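Milestone M4 deliverable, item 7.
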Amino acid sequence: MTQAIHQILKTLVPGDAISHHTREIRDIIRSMGFQSEIFVETCDPTLVKETQPLESYDHYSSPENIVIFHFSQGTPLVDRILALPDRIVIIYHNITPEKYFRRVHHQTWESLIQGRDQLPLLASKSIFGFADSEYNRKELVQAGCRRTGVLPIIINFELYDEPLNPMVTHLFQDRQTTFLFVGRVTPNKGHLNILKFMYYFKKIEQAARLIIVGQYYGFEPYVYLLNQTTTHLKLEDVYFVGHVSHNELCTYYQLADIFLCVSFHEGFCVPLVESMYFDLPIMACSGTAIDDTLGNAGLIFKEFNPLLMAETAHRVLKDQAFRATIIRDQRRRCQHFERQKIVDIFKRHLQSIL
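Output delivered:
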């Protein structure tokens, strides 16, 4: 008989998709009548009341418990998880290939290498493995996880019905074509290719800007390279706005004309779903989990071709019927990620585990 179903992860922070996912899962488990807490090594001060310190888990641990462990990079936490008497369930958020961080961020590079070594150990110990996407699930199976299922990131669309942020709308009030990308400013996200795209698009339409939303703390050398490239290509109207509030993020989605995603590696890519919700046409390059998340929605290019993508973007902007077709398909796909549907998937898998 299962006593409790707890979750363990490195940290919990506001505005983070995995952190929100974790809190949603806790609430679902509690609604099913089980005790459920979130145990972390570190936590944002605003979320302290929603967590327990990892050191205290010894008082909760039991062979009758299920522990859900969120895993996306190497951590000494894994040794502690493997030593627990509890039944282990892994939620795999994917491990970015370490090659993108070599000579860019040494600590991240090391943790990703470590994570690849730890994944088979976790997979073999786990009684079940959740994955954000089919792409992630296949990696879990390859690592030795015997029972797996896809559980997309839980997104509560009601939280996105925000009024426009007055500061953001004032800064970008002049009307010009706006391209948007949302994600951490790290090499795997393909920012250099986005800049190349802008170079070609500005040959078609000069009055265009690019807004890149995402935290870049710790990756200043990479940001320096991006700024150098921007200067070299003589690009104007490129804005790295950093980490923003949820209200500001919603405003950027509403101000944009096209969402660009040319990432080399994604395990799910929440901004694709957010763009679908805001009726923002998506142009993306195929690969990793991008195809899983988009399904038949958006415009997916088999490979990065900046000239072709620039010409296609121009058509999206000028051909209203074409744009309407893209938005229609995205709305259909967005229904796949409605909160209740993901909740039902989780409950169904959890019942099979129990």
